[in-house]
From TrEMBL:
Keywords: Membrane, Transmembrane, Transmembrane helix
Annotated Armadillo-like helical domain residues: 436-682
Signal peptide (from-to): none
Domain of life: Eukaryota
Organism encoding this protein: Glomus cerebriforme
GO cellular component: cytosol; membrane
UniProt-recorded name of the protein: Armadillo-like helical domain-containing protein
Length: 683
């Protein structure tokens, strides 16, 4: 009889006669034994070398770790520790595939362990992985190896896997400050390795993750101790780093914004673009009275909106930290805006193929692309109008803080106000009330005002987000203060601002009984809105483009007479302007001796009373019961001379933004949301 052919082990387990053949890959067979508490490496000197040549079955390994309890993990602690240590050793081998497999094994292993609920996260995780006595030996070795492979890995995959492993370790706990393993990344920082990944062109697909990891590390216990990443982040001077960060922020904003538009198209397409599309597709693009069109593939738009933005929006934390900590980065944003402009002779207010010259069309294509900052503003308008969850509130906080910081910068204010630097920025028009559709080139200050007004109009709820409203009003206050101080006349639909501010005041007045628990914060919002109106009443002549803008302001104030009378009752019970009164806000009340005695509604009351009497007298003289808006404007315009107002001091003063101390708790909470999202990122 001929002897059987000799074969190499293939992972086939021979069943009993008549049974079906069961296939079990070698990786599964090893880890099955491993998790039963056996040591498959016993007596096999080449075991670990061969194991890390096997393709990692991440699905199976993840399943094993998800099904095992914490007690069972502790029971096989020796196996876990050995696997952890041997994986770190394999990361130093010459064979690239062994390095990659070892790091992938560590990623899955650590993610599985980190997902468990530990009473003391750091203590129990370190005890499981290395034992407490060996932690100061093993973890520095891990960090050092990650650092080396990220910078000098022989192939791209090695560098990317090292980055991924670092992310898994650092983000093991959503509260990164409670993950003491991160302390080892402070003692031996990987800053330079991350910067190299960010700026190296062939590593551009890793830039998002590298930027995020750097920023998360820069937030680790940054208020309790010296953080080397934050120190170096503050000192970054390389324009290539700034450029790459803004490129990543911009591309992420564009992607996130497109997801809102996929749910509901909201572009009131102008004539020029309609004609272009018509010539291209040979059909008519429908127009809509309310500027909205629901996407045909979305059955429940509201539910779809709640799920947005995607997890990649976590990049806003890095944008905030760069804006808040690195003045050179803000200067880079200013330069990126200043690079773009349209011809001074151009006076284009809409796309109209019949009247727009070819040169202007080209210019408008440039400003539609514009600087990276425009993409941030566009996404901001969508997110702020669809702010319905605690998660989106975290990102709304970041957006408004970024805007507060930026509009405190004099050089940025100068460039966003310059008429020769005009841009077309698509803003959200998916929820009523809709702002005027300003799809024409204009200075970015108008865009920023529209973004903030959009927030004010679309977040009026009984559980009022007073912190967000204080920031939104702070942005407006800073912008108007700049216009006033520099006597910059801004063509803008100012009436939209008055509608929003008075609408906010009316909403608070109507729901004041629901705000008793948070009355101090609500009062602060009231004061901020009233001060913006006071600033415009007193100094509007320095920044309104024409007299009609003043007429519009007074018209809206007089129309809202009943609202202001109701606010008088609230103000009389609340000492808004008591000098030295404590406030958690960064938005300062008037502080001069004269303004401290100023009734915040004094000028508004005077205007209401003065013009109400004039209107009643006019109606009596002309024997009419009501008047038209045109007659209303005429009465206002002819009775300014007899109006006597006081001029309070320092209405344009504010306390510059500072993260410490009041915003520290907020940003720690936001950081947890960011880390959670970053772990769900789509790459």
């Amino acid at each position: 009889m001929q002897s059987p052919t000799k074969t190499v082990f293939t992972g086939v387990v021979r069943p009993a006669y008549g049974a079906k053949t069961v296939l079990k890959e070698k990786f599964v067979e090893i880890y099955e034994s491993f998790f039963k508490g056996n040591d498959p490496s016993a007596g096999q000197p080449n075991f670990w070398s061969e194991l890390f040549l096997l393709k990692v079955n991440a699905t199976y390994l993840t399943k094993c770790l998800s099904e095992i309890s914490q007690d069972q993990l502790l029971a096989i602690k020796n196996n876990i520790g050995k696997l952890f240590l041997k994986s770190i050793e394999a990361m130093k081998e010459e064979n690239s595939q062994r390095k990659i497999n070892a790091m992938e094994t560590l990623c899955v292993l650590l993610q599985g362990i980190f997902s468990k609920r530990f009473n003391n996260f750091s203590f129990e995780v370190i005890n499981l992985l290395t034992g407490l006595n060996n932690a100061d030996t093993v973890f520095p070795r891990l960090v050092d190896t990650i650092k080396y492979l990220m910078k000098y890995g022989e192939i791209t995959e090695v560098r990317h896997e090292a980055l991924r492993l670092a992310i898994v370790v650092v983000c093991g706990n959503n509260n990164i400050n409670q993950n003491s393993i991160n302390g080892y990344f402070m003692k031996n920082d990987i800053f330079d390795s991350l910067i190299e990944l960010i700026i190296t062109p062939k590593m551009s697909h890793m830039a998002y993750e590298a930027i995020m990891l750097l920023d998360i590390l820069a937030n680790y216990n940054k208020h309790e101790s010296k953080n080397p990443y934050l120190i170096k982040l503050i000192d970054i001077k390389d324009e290539a780093v700034f450029e790459k960060i803004m490129d990543v922020v911009s591309s992420t904003c564009i992607k996130c914004q497109s997801q809102y538009i996929e749910i509901q198209e909201d572009d009131e397409t102008n004539k020029y673009l309609v004609s272009t599309v018509m010539s291209y597709v040979g059909s008519i693009l429908p127009w809509y009275g309310n500027g909205t069109r629901k996407h045909s593939n979305v059955s429940d738009p509201e539910l779809a909106f709640v799920r947005l933005p995607s997890a990649n929006i976590a990049i806003l934390l890095a944008f905030y930290d760069m804006v808040n900590n690195n003045k050179r980065f803000v200067d880079h944003i200013v330069k990126s805006i200043a690079k773009f402009s349209i011809p001074a002779k151009s006076n284009v207010n809409e796309y109209d193929s019949a009247t727009v010259s070819e040169d202007d069309k080209k210019s408008m294509e440039i400003v539609r692309d514009g600087p990276y900052f425009c993409d941030f503003l566009s996404l901001s308008s969508y997110l702020l109008q669809h702010n319905r969850t605690n998660r989106t509130a975290s990102y709304a906080n970041l957006i408004l803080l970024i805007l507060v910081i930026l509009v405190e910068d004099a050089t940025l204010n100068e460039v966003i106000c310059e008429d020769e630097r005009r841009f077309i920025v698509r803003l959200c028009r998916q929820r009523p009330p809709l702002l005027q559709n300003a799809r024409f080139p204009r200075p970015l200050i108008g865009v920023i005002l529209d973004v903030v007004i959009g927030f004010i109009n679309h977040n009026l709820r009984r559980k009022l987000q007073t912190d967000l409203y204080s920031m939104a009003l702070g942005v407006i206050h800073r912008l108007i203060s700049y216009l006033k101080r520099n006597r910059v006349r801004l063509p803008y639909h100012w009436s939209e601002l008055w509608h929003s501010l008075i609408g906010l005041l009316k909403f608070i007045l109507s729901n004041i009984e629901h705000f008793q628990q948070d009355r101090a914060s609500v009062n602060e919002v009231l004061l901020s809105a009233i001060n913006i109106i006071n600033l415009s009443i007193t100094f509007g002549d320095t920044f309104f483009p024409d007299p009609i803008s003043y007429d519009n302001l007074f018209y809206e104030i007089v129309r809202a007479k009943e609202t202001f009378e109701g606010l008088n009752r609230i103000v009389n019970k609340t000492n808004f302007t008591k000098p030295g009164s404590p406030t958690k806000s960064t938005f300062q009340k008037p502080t001069s001796s004269s303004s401290s005695q100023f009734d915040v509604l004094s000028n508004i009351n005077t205007i209401c009373t003065h013009f109400h009497l004039k209107i009643e007298a006019w109606k009596l003289t002309n024997r009419v019961r009501s008047i038209t808006p045109e007659q209303f404007y005429s009465i206002i315009n002819t009775n300014y001379d007899t109006l006597e107002l006081v001029t309070p001091e320092k209405l344009d003063h504010y306390t510059p933004y500072s993260e410490i101390p009041y915003n520290v708790p907020l940003l720690r909470q936001v950081l947890r949301v960011i880390v959670d999202d970053f772990k769900k990122r789509e790459i």
